[in-house]
Amino acid sequence: MARASKREEIAQAALEQFRTRGFNATGISDITSAAGAPKGSFYNHFASKEDSALEALGRYAVGLRFDMLDMPGPPLERLRAHFEFMGSDTVDSGFARGCLVGNFGAEVADHSEEIRSAVRRGFQQWASHIERVLAEARESGDISASLDLPATALFVLSAWEGALIAARADKSSAPLDAFFHIVFDVVLH
Predict the structure, then answer these.
(1) 130-148 core/surface letters (b: 16 or more CB in 10 A; e: else)
(2) 3-state SS of the chain: helix, strand, coil percent to 5?
(3) How far apart are CA 156 and CA 105, in angstroms?
(4) At what angle do helices 49-62 and 6-21 cross, to 10 degrees?
(5) Which domain holds residue 130?
(6) What's the sign of the alpha-carbon dihedral 113, 115, 121, 126?
C-alpha cells in the first residue's frame, strides 16, 4: 500500500485540527504534530495557515455528501437524510465538531477576505443543492407551490448552522431535534 504524501498528511491533519479546535486556536505546530511532520515541512506545502484553511474548506465540502441529495427516493426524505448524516458527525464527536464552513464564517470571515469568500461560495453551493431538492419536492406536490425556494433554502441552511452551534454549546442533540421537527414537520410539511 502506498504511503500518503506528507502534503496529504498535513492537509488532513489541518482539516481535523480546524474542525476540532477552530482556526485561531490551531497553530502550525498543532497541525504538523498531528501529521507527525516537522514544523518546517508545513511551509514546503502551504504558504500560510490561511492557505491550509482554504484547502481544509475544500476537503470538508467533499465530505458534505451532496450526492445523497441525488439518490433515488422522495426529495424531502433525501434532504432529511443528508442533514441526519451531517448531524451524526457532531453527535458522534461528543459535540466537539460542527460545520467547518459555519465555524470559519463565524470565526475568521471578518479577518480574511479569502476565507470569507470561500465560506460565502460554500454556503451558496450548499443552498443551491437544497433549493434544487425543494424544487423537486414542489414538483411532486410535497411542499406548497407558493414557497419561495431560494429564501427557504437559505432559511433551512441558516437554521441548520444555528442548530449545530447550539448543540455544541449545550452538548445536547435537543437543538438538532428541534431543527428536524420545525423544518420537516412544520416549514416543509
Answers:
(1) bbbbbebbbeeeebeeeee
(2) 75, 0, 25
(3) 17
(4) 90
(5) 65-187
(6) negative
**CATH number reported for the structural domain that contains residue 119 in this entry:** 1.10.357.10
Encode pLDDT of 117-142 as tens digits: 999 999 999 999 999 999 999 999 99
For the record, the C-alpha cell of 115 comes out as 476565507
Residues 37 and 74 in one domain: no
Query: What DSSP assignment string belongs to 15-77?
Result: HHHHHHH-TTT--HHHHHHHHT--HHHHHHH-SSHHHHHHHHHHHHHHTT-GGGGGSSS-HHH
My answer on whether 18 and 48 are in the same domain is yes
Q: For residue 149, which phi and psi values (nearest 5 degrees)?
A: -65, -45
Residue 40 and residue 71 share a domain:
no
Over residues 42-59, the pLDDT tens digits come to 999 999 999 999 999 999
SS3 label, residue 136: helix
- Domain count within the chain: 2
Q: How far apart are CA 90 and CA 86, in angstroms?
A: 7
**CB atoms near residue 38 (< 10 Å):** 11
Closest to 16 (Cα-Cα) out of 38, 37, 3, 32: 32
Helix 49-62 to helix 113-139 angle (10° resolution) is: 10
